[in-house]
Amino acid sequence: MTLSPLPLSGVRVVEFSHTVMGPTCGMVLADLGADVVKVEPVDGDRTRRLKGFGVGFFGFLNRNKRAIAVDVATADGRAAVDELVRRADVLIENFAPGTMTKRGYGLQRCAELNPRLIYCALKGFLAGPYEHRAALDEVVQMMGGLAYMTGPTGKPLRAGASVIDIMGGTYGALGVLLKLRERDRTGRGGHVESALFESVVLLMGTHLAASAVMQRPVPPMPERISSWAIYEPMDTADGAQIFIGVTSDGQWRRFIDVFGLADLKDDARLATNNDRIAARPWLLPILRQTMAARPIAEIERLAEQADISYARVARPEDLLDDPHLAASGQLAPTLLPGDVVARLPLLPLRLDGRVLGKDRDPPSIVGQHTREVLHELGYADPDITRLAAAGTIATGDA
Question: Hey, CA dihedral for 105, 111, 113, 118, is it positive or negative?
Fold first, then answer.
């Protein structure tokens, strides 16, 4: 069966980006079918050279894209990128404020090159007193209260992934989709802005609402008063941990029946969820002892039988053997720079049941698609060879 074109098939995107936020936006659009051309300097995106926590950024976030390497400080380099922008539908950038203008590709000049262009700027802050400040994911997690809510009092702790970069980049992609829809009506391009700080503030919305209702500050998550009595990770007999969530009175009754807790069945102190919250100081030790006497596989079987929420406390690498992900095709084999093959997650979407998959591995070589893209712009091989010899472009040729 021939698959229909993806929703963004035919949409051309120029991506000036690095690290996480901009590449996330480009990856979402590429996975949806857009032709995303990533523009790197001739020595490559510095994200390629990150170590430690950042070593996986480039390989994961740049699938389904083509990459060219051009020195936009040269007249010939700018001429090539100008033509790329003229033919594009969307431009993405996530550099520090003013950087793109200095390089010749700020909003005003790009709008002059292409009035139909949708210019997506991904920044630390939206307009306001902070808009010229540099920002990072971890910085705004501290500013916006997320680190405070994640760690215990006095020990702010960033979330264990670049959640704000990814969220901000995804909202940028959403803005691009909205402007493409609007352009269908008006014929004009426009400006999309998404920011890290405002993204983390959105995540704080439920805490702000809770503080207003309770008329007091919300405590960090490790010290919170849960909305549900049993909502805890617990140790098991075989050294694992399992999270158990019992969030309704019906679940409570099934839970105590299946787990053999008959002594608790008629205890008036446990009649309702709110009663059980009040009973947590003496109830949770009983439940922890119950779980600690059983291996995790048995607990999972019983939790399934009781129809309550449960989850093994997993490490990232445990996902590689997850049977649900294997059955759903949610992990795609991906060739990473350095000839490393890894199974990496796809977008958590289905369109009429269709998996939004991986058609291209991330560009492993700097300038891997420069020659191909310049051919599409009308450059002949002798011109490309001359530009490569001058150091204006990198072509990735062996």
Answer: positive
d(CA 359, CA 31): 8
- How much is the average pLDDT of 212-221? 94
Is the distance from CB of 182 to CB of 118 less than 8 angstroms?
no
Q: What is the pLDDT of residues 185-214, one digit of tens each?
A: 999 999 999 999 999 999 999 999 999 999
Type of residue found at 218: V
Over 60: is that where the pLDDT of 398 sits? no
Q: How far apart are the first and last CA of the chain?
A: 38
* Across 323-340, average pLDDT: 94
pLDDT class for 338, splitting at 50, 70, 90? confident
26, 46, 57, 64, 346 from 32: Cα distances, Å = 10, 26, 20, 10, 11
Helix (H, G, I), strand (E, B) or coil at 100: helix
What distance in Å separates the CA atoms of residue 125 and residue 139, rounded to the nearest whole number?
12
Tokens of 87: 């033919």
CA–CA separation, 61 and 299 (whole Å): 37
**What phi-psi label fits residue 139: left (phi over 0), alpha (psi between -120 and 50 degrees) or beta?**
alpha
Whether residue 122 contacts residue 25, with contact meaning beta carbons closer than 8 Å, is answered with: yes
DSSP string of 305-369?
Answer: HHT-EEEE---GGGGGG-HHHHHHT-EEEEEETTTEEEEEE--S-EETTEE---SS----STTTT
Question: pLDDT-derived band of residue 1, with 50, 70 and 90 as boundaries?
Answer: low
Amino acid at 60: F
Alpha helices by DSSP H, 154-248? 163-186, 196-203, 205-214
| Of 80, 44, 77, 79, nearest in space to 62 by CA | 44
Look at residues 356, 366, 294 and name the one whose alpha carbon lies nearest to residue 329.
356
Whole-angstrom CA distances from 211 to 117, 140, 147, 214, 215 are 42, 20, 17, 5, 6
* Residue among 115, 74, 56 at smallest CA distance from 394: 74
Local confidence band at 397 (pLDDT 50, 70, 90 cut-offs)? confident
| Inter-residue contact 370 to 343 (CB < 8 Å) | no
* Helices 196-203, 205-214: crossing angle, 10 deg rounding: 40
Mean pLDDT of the chain: 96
Strand 241-246 with 309-312, pairing: antiparallel
Distance (Å, rounded) from C-alpha 363 to C-alpha 365? 6
